[in-house]
Every structure is written in C-alpha cells, then in structure tokens.
C-alpha cells in the first residue's frame, strides 16, 4: 500500500475539474515538508510529527485578499514555501484532522505525510455506494515487527477518541484487500486503517497505516449526486444490488454510430462499468463490468448492438459489434 515519494515532494490538491474555471478561492494551512534523511526503504516527503500549522490566520487573510471568489474549490496560493490553500472553513477542518491523527498515533511510532489520496472512501447520505474522499491525511509506520500490537493499540485509540467501526471501506480501483473503516459521527471524521496484519504477515517489512478525513471531503455537487444516483439505480435494476464503490462518473458520454444511442463507463470496484441509453433523454442501463474486451456474443440484444455499434469485441479474434 506504500507509495513512492520523491525528495522534496510538495503536497498538491486536485481542483474540481467542473469548477476549475470558476475562479479562485480562499485559504488554508502551512505544513513544511521535511525530507527525513536515512529513513529505511526510501520514505520521502514525510511531515514531522511535531510540525504544527503556523500563522494560519495570516496565511488565510493574505490568500483571501488575493482570491475573493467564494467557490468552495481547492487552489494553491504560491508564496515560495509550498503553502496549500482553500477556504477558511476547510483550513479549520484540516487542522482538526491533523490533531485527530496526532491523538490516534501518540503512542505508536508512525510518520505523517500529506496525500492527495483516492484510497479513503465514504458513503454519503442518499448514496448507496462508497465514493472517493478527495483529500485525506495519512500516517504510516516504518517497517518492522510488532505490527499486530500496533494495530491493537490503534484500535483502542480510535475507540477512546469516539470512533466506531463501520466495517470495510472498499479501495478505489481494486478488488483486493479493503480498509478497516471507523467513523466519529460527532466530528464527521472518517478514518481507515490498514496493516500487513490484515494479511497475517509478521516480517521485518510489516507496517500499519492510518488515514483520516472529513466526511464532507468527497466534495460532491448536486449534479454529482444526481449522476451517481442515476448510475447506481441502473446498476441495481440489472443486478439487484448496488455497486460497492463508484468513481470517474464524469467520463465523456459517447454517441453511438447508431443515433441517438449513447454509451459511457464509470469505475466500479476494480472494473469499468459499461452503461448505455437509447437516447440522451432516456435512463441509463447497466450492461457489464469488465477489465478487458468483451466477447462479441455478449452484445446479445438489439439495444446493445445499436448502443455499441462498431465497438471492438472478441470473436475468435479481433472484431467489432455489428447489427
């Protein structure tokens, strides 16, 4: 689960693509990135455990003066030191998550670093599938023995901090191991914990990782919610179940060569979920979840053949969907 970090990595947060032309926003937080020399296995860009947010009000005021629009999107206010900024409310939430991680790991040897992560996910009200958290903070231990004891300590700390288990959190783009999920409903904070103990290992390369965020950090717009509901309803109508996790629901809609049919895909678990509709005004229909080219005989209805006309398929060799 570890990600490679280059030296002097600067935390970067992705803009909401649908809003990126709507103007800049207000402001956030300073966490200087320290390169920890000599840490085993090349873990770089880690944030010191003792490093605290400094000059928060000054940074927020300066950024607010330069960005007086009010769209709640994330932007970077360059000041030469890698300050990452967003709204004032977001900055306060960010500090709360930093403090939560400090509390949860106060008696465990872990390091902190910022992730623009899609590993943590949450199931918002009114949505039946998990959707990715767009920003979360993570602390990860150095490799070593004793991971089961560390995980037990972490679980105790979570309970003492008001977190309750919410079961497994699925990982975007993966059908493999999932994350142990915990939620504090009073602070609207979600955390995910994973360790090599999940896989029953006990070697010198074992580790634990705890990642936390605010539940609101999915940053779903009303349009996003409506799109997700349409796709998960289509999925349910075909499979009698809801997707475990959904992502990339804003992919381009493709016009079929047989007008007015259309098709598109979204991420479902570790596969691409294929959807089609008979016209732009019609409801989406779920077709299949796949990781590769489908067999031509899978397109076994007139609607499917029209929606995917001349799309690649496999029929004892490369072929295309035909009526």
The radius of gyration over CA amounts to 22 Å
DSSP helical segment count: 5
Number of structural domains: 2
Sketch the major β-sheet.
6 strands, antiparallel
Strand content: 15-25%
Strand order of the biggest β-sheet:
1-4-8-7-6-5
Low-confidence stretches: 1-57, 68-85
Helix content: 10-25%
The end-to-end span amounts to: 45 Å
H/E element string?
HHEEEEHEEEEHEEEEEHEE
Q: What is the total tally of β strands?
A: 15
Mean of all residue-level pLDDT scores: 74
Q: How would the global form be characterised?
A: elongated
Helix/strand structural class: alpha+beta
Summarize the structure.
With 323 residues, this protein is α+β, with helices and mostly antiparallel strands. It is 20% helix and 22% strand.
